[in-house]
Design brief:
Layout lengths: L3 H4 L11 H8 L3 H6 L1 E7 L2 E7 L13 H17 L7 E11 L7 E11 L3 E9 L5 E12 L13
Antiparallel strand pairs: 1-2, 2-4, 3-6, 4-5, 5-6
Length: about 160
């Protein structure tokens, strides 16, 4: 079990991947809360997230808005990526694509994401989204640019 001081590096960045610590941080992000997403697991280049469908997330036809599934694809692949990329690095979405297969009128959907390719500066992942019956309602892919951030060098101490 990691010690608390192993979790935080420069700016609170984890030095080693700690799934429980990461889930706690992700699940309180304002956007995640707004969309009603919840990270259930993340590690080894995979993640599982869910979204309980609420009336505010529905389109004028009474089914889940496609933008919610787009956000779920982007976020689930990003959480899978975070579990395998260098912890001092950052990432930004380059693009994502979603194929909608079936309308979702309610219930809970679950996204299973995995990283397909992790390069030095580009990563690609895919997500399959299922409804409560286990039917695939959408699938998507996402591409990220990896920014290899290095901690700032220590400032020299000037003696007077």
């Amino acid at each position: 079990m990691p010690r608390d001081n192993d979790r935080g590096g420069v700016g609170g960045v984890m030095k080693i991947f700690d799934e429980e610590f990461y889930k706690e941080r992700v699940n309180v992000f304002p956007f995640i809360k707004l969309m009603g997403l919840k990270l259930l697991s993340s590690g080894g280049g995979k993640s599982v997230m869910e979204c309980r469908i609420r009336p505010i997330l529905k389109n004028s036809g009474g089914t889940l808005h496609g933008g919610v599934m787009g956000a779920l694809v982007d976020t689930s692949v990003a959480t899978a990526l975070r579990s395998v990329m260098p912890l001092s690095s950052r990432m930004t979405t380059v693009e994502y694509k979603v194929n909608f297969l079936k309308p979702v009128p309610g219930g809970t959907i679950t996204a299973h994401a995995s990283i397909l390719r992790l390069g030095r500066t580009i990563a690609v992942g895919a997500t399959e989204i299922r409804d409560e019956a286990g039917d695939v309602v959408a699938f998507g892919s996402a591409t990220y640019y990896i920014l290899n951030v290095r901690p700032p060098a220590e400032s020299p101490v000037i003696m007077e």
